[in-house]
Amino acid sequence: MAQQEDVFKKLVSHSKEYGFVFQSSEIYDGLSAVYDYGQNGVELKNNIKKYWWDSMVLLHENVVGIDSAIFMHPTIWKASGHVDAFNDPLIDNKDSKKRYRADVLIEDQMAKFDDKINKEVEKAAKRFGESFDEEQFRATNGRVLEYQAKKEELHTRFAKALNDSNLEDLRQIILDYEIVCPISGTKNWTEVRQFNLMFSTEMGSTAEGAMKVYLRPETAQGIFVNYLNVQKTGRMKIPFGIAQIGKAFRNEIVARQFIFRMREFEQMEMQFFVRPGEELEWFAKWKDTRLKWHKALGLGEKKYRFHDHDKLAHYANAATDIEFEMPFGFKEVEGIHSRTNFDLSSHEQYSGKKLQYFDPETKESYVPYVIETSIGVDRMFLSVMAAAYTEEQLENGETRVVLKLPAALAPVKVAVMPLTKKDGMPDKARQIIDDLKFDFKCQYDEKDSIGKRYRRQDAIGTPFCVTVDHQTLTDNTVTIRFRDTMTQERVAIDQLRGIIADQVSLRNLLKKITE
Ligand code: ATP
């Protein structure tokens, strides 16, 4: 674990050093849990968004996009339940004065039982060697069963307290399991309180009476309130979906862990409108499609798992998370929810407008049911960076830090380098860029030794480096170096575009989803 935390620290400083992520307002000592994306970060982020957007609106004839405003009529948040129920249970440690989410403290405690079980399994695996049967061990070992039972007991109590919104019981669990503050190490806890996560501000001049408006805590409501506009103007037939990418804001209680939990972040959400009664079938389909989207990136099949919710949100009849193995454990990256007709019905009620769909096949009118897929761009960014960050020991004893980013997501696709600044090599390199720049983000680099220049590109995940040398001037060939294998090939300049395009095109990723 310590090693993993170490990796995480390195990742955070690497992200800064190479222009991926900066603390917001850094010269003013920063603004907590708000981050800015730098010159490389913004490219990676845009590529992630494009991959998601295309997977929705290109691959599905019946999914279209919108871009709704961040400010919305305040009654929308009453109708959606956010004014009354978008709360997290918070608890303070009186000694360290640190604030925590009570549910997260308890979840961490459950994860400790898993750690203990895994340790037992590891020990036994070493002891028994090849003859070790893990499944049997997990099913029969006394200690493992004891930890498992303890975890389940805690889980049951926790789920009940959450579902009943029983704050006293949440606190009691923390006391009973002797959960301590990681900073002060004490059990000196306050009561548990509910804390609403929405930011608010005022709109309009005070003379006329300003209106309290919220910064949206999710993009989904912008889709719901436009559902009929899109359905009518786009002549959409159920089932159909509306996708949107945009900023969301939450006044998170505990905002640590870098860009994993931010106060201003970006979501990619898709609401899929279906016939009532067919929602669980579509829920299963979207679960499958979304997992394929993640896996197509090749970050590692074993890094994903589904986690079904213990507490269903007030609107949901099924919900799962896609979790990714971050350096600090498996964490939610995306939520897939069957939201029933809760949102649309509630907007009908609050707005007094009908939001029904007339189904030409069944000749019935109804409020559609909704499956939602909701993924955070920033969490996705973090998972891609975490999986890509690699330290490699080279044969000459040096270490190289390389971001093994999926080529389609890499901020810079190709770096073009003249071997020396003489003999017209820089001009030749510029000519190559002038041809490639219409298709790919290119970078020109002539400073330092070629080895150093390669390392700089490795550190930002550039899949290809092209070097112009003396031979280039006579036969128009260059060397192309591949990031992951570090192998080099001599190719004709006019082959470059084809070689690069083949690797960096989103097409390859998108095709994998449909296979
Ligand atoms: P968590 O339990 O971690 O607070 P959530 O269940 O509240 O997350 P959702 O409301 O389902 O999250 O939001 C959908 C997605 O938006 C999440 O899967 C995550 O990727 C992203 N997201 C939510 N809150 C944040 C945040 N504070 N910072 C960055 N991304 C976030």
Structure description:
By secondary structure, the protein is α+β, with helices and mostly antiparallel strands. The chain has three domains: 39-81 and 216-391, BirA Bifunctional Protein, domain 2; 87-196, 2-Layer Sandwich (Herpes Virus-1), CATH 3.30.40; 394-514, 3-Layer(aba) Sandwich (Rossmann fold), CATH 3.40.50. The protein contains 18 helices and 23 strands. The strands form seven sheets. The chain has a seven-stranded mixed β-sheet with strand order 3-9-10-16-13-12-11. The chain has a five-stranded mixed β-sheet with strand order 20-19-21-22-23, with helices on both faces. Strands 5-4-6 form a three-stranded antiparallel β-sheet. The longest helix is centred in the first third of the chain and has 27 residues, at 102-128. The site of adenosine-5'-triphosphate has 15 residues, from β10, β13, β16 and α13.
List the topology elements.
Elements: H1 2-17, E1 21-23, E2 35-37, H2 39-57, E3 63-65, H3 75-79, H4 82-85, E4 87-92, E5 99-101, H5 102-128, H6 134-140, H7 142-163, H8 167-176, E6 193-196, E7 200-203, E8 211-214, H9 220-224, H10 227-233, E9 240-249, E10 264-274, H11 279-295, E11 304-308, E12 318-326, E13 329-340, H12 342-351, E14 357-359, E15 364-366, E16 369-376, H13 377-388, E17 389-393, E18 399-403, E19 414-418, H14 425-436, E20 442-444, H15 450-460, E21 464-468, H16 470-475, E22 477-482, E23 488-492, H17 496-504, H18 506-514
Parallel strand pairs: 3-9, 19-20, 19-21
Antiparallel strand pairs: 1-2, 4-5, 4-6, 7-8, 9-10, 10-16, 11-12, 12-13, 13-16, 14-15, 17-18, 21-22, 22-23
Helix pairs in contact: 2-13, 5-7, 5-8, 7-8, 11-18
The chain binds adenosine-5'-triphosphate.
Residues 250, 252, 261-262, 265, 267, 332-335, 374-376, 378-379 line the site of adenosine-5'-triphosphate.
